[in-house]
Amino acid sequence: MRRHRNVKIVATLGPASSTYEMIRALFEAGADVFRLNMSHGAHEDIRKRHEIIRQVEKDLGRPIGILADLQGPKLRVGVFANGQEELIEGAAFRMDLSTTPGDAHRVNLPHPEIFAALEPGATLLVNDGKIRLRVNACGKDFADCTVEVGGTISNRKGVNVPDVVLPLAALSEKDRSDLEFVCELGVDWLALSFVQRPEDVIEARSLAKGRAAILSKIEKPAAVKAYDAILQVSDGIMVARGDLGVELPVTSVPPIQKRLVRGARAAAKPVIVATQMLESMIESPVPTRAEVSDVATAIYEGADAIMLSAESAAGKYPVEAVTTMNDVAMSVEKDPTYRSVIEASRVVRRESVADGIVAAAREIAEATNIKAICCFSQTGTTAALVARERPHVPILALTPLLSTARRMALTWGAHCVITPPQDRFKGAVLAAVGAARADGFATEEDQIVVTAGVPFNVKGTTNILRVAPCDERLISRVDPE
């Protein structure tokens, strides 16, 4: 099943998309990667969805990526004697460690680490930022605040602390349990929520032990400030605009999105743009024009992937949502303006032989009638480098490892093909030609570019490029055994 677009689609699974028939329909509609949200669903539910995805993969003969999204530390207020209270602008309100049910003047906040980090003048946001409190005075077990934006506060509503870096581990005990569970299942990507510092990523990597690639969700101001350091130790990035739009002014989210996408692309690491992309399709079979423009903007920016959350997990029209994303992507990528925008945002990086090889592959493809760039990769790094160039011809990512093919399902433009292990370059060229012809990228009269690393099966050795005819007889004449 060949996709006629480069950007990838991530679809979240949930109550609306948990059967074999629905998951298969979502893949056939255009989903390339499925997200398992560890904030919802017991381990047994997650296991069943994982098994179904792998069955769909087997039945359709195409590698499918699976991303497990860890919940991260959740900060919530306690309970109220009346279940809820109305906070009035200008009123005083206290948060403290007392377990006594709350009222209109105070409530329990069972997180001493927040009080330890607060300073006068800090902001506390409650219920996705609908209520805003300003800290006047604080100590190790309390924070006296003024209500700047009032509203209804009720039991166990979430709390955001945008102004300070909290002394919280990115992985809660639940996250550690979930991480081990999904790594044993065999997921391909782990998404870390509420990352604040590179050390959070390093900790998760040590626990994953190479069983899954690590994707950092950028959703806190501290993560935006430390982005370059976080990017360096991550395998991929998610622009999680939901919490970013709570903890930062919503007007700052679009420029931040552009910066994060460009940074990840320059580093040749997959980047997902997520949250509320087709939000209205939870209830409606048709998106708003603004949502379509939002999806298109992420594609024009060069994002590797765009993501559906509740639209596919709990909405009434999950298949229609994926179909809409697929149609928007195909429309954008056919637009002549798309290529000029992508070219203008390309970051030139020439720091290694591999950088030079993939840049040359793109330039040769642009200057001649090349039908595809075929790259062999043990880890997916070569395919990611080729994808960074955003070539105008398809990318065939060939690997002997199913695990690598699954991870590359998140890489822009990569059509992943499982091939037998190779130990000679001629064999690699023949395998690339066979894949290009079998999957409809080239005919016998066409040419392709083949890149690989010699010796084979050694990470980071991309050092050879060949323009090859798609006629095996011509290859044999030029490269006899």
Topology:
Layout lengths: L7 E6 L6 H10 L3 E5 L5 H18 L4 E5 L14 E4 L4 E5 L9 E3 L3 H6 L5 E4 L4 E9 L2 E8 L1 E4 L4 E2 L12 H13 L3 E4 L5 H11 L4 E6 L2 H5 L1 H7 L2 E5 H7 L5 H14 L4 E4 L14 H12 L4 E4 L1 H4 L4 H17 L1 H9 L8 H15 L2 E7 L4 H8 L6 E5 L2 H6 L6 E5 L6 H14 L8 E7 L8 E8 L2 H7 L3
Parallel strand pairs: 1-2, 1-16, 2-3, 3-12, 5-6, 12-13, 13-14, 14-15, 15-16, 17-18, 17-20, 18-19
Antiparallel strand pairs: 4-10, 5-9, 7-8, 7-11, 8-9, 20-21
Helix pairs in contact: 1-2, 1-12, 2-4, 5-7, 10-12
List its traits:
481 residues, alpha/beta, TIM Barrel, M1 Pyruvate Kinase, Domain 3, Pyruvate Kinase, Chain: A, domain 1, 3 domains, 6-stranded mixed sheet, 21 strands
What does this structure look like?
It is a single chain. By secondary structure, this protein is α/β, with parallel strands linked by helices. It folds into 3 domains: 8-72 and 169-334, Phosphoenolpyruvate-binding domains (TIM Barrel, Alpha-Beta Barrel); 84-160, PK beta-barrel domain-like (M1 Pyruvate Kinase, Domain 3); 353-478, 3-Layer(aba) Sandwich (Pyruvate Kinase, Chain: A, domain 1), CATH 3.40.1380.20. The chain is built from 18 helices and 21 strands. The strands form 4 sheets. Strands 1-2-3-12-13-14-15-16 form an 8-stranded parallel β-barrel, surrounded by 9 helices. The longest helix is centred in the N-terminal third of the chain and has 18 residues, at 43-60. The chain is elongated, with a radius of gyration of 24 Å. The two termini are 34 Å apart.
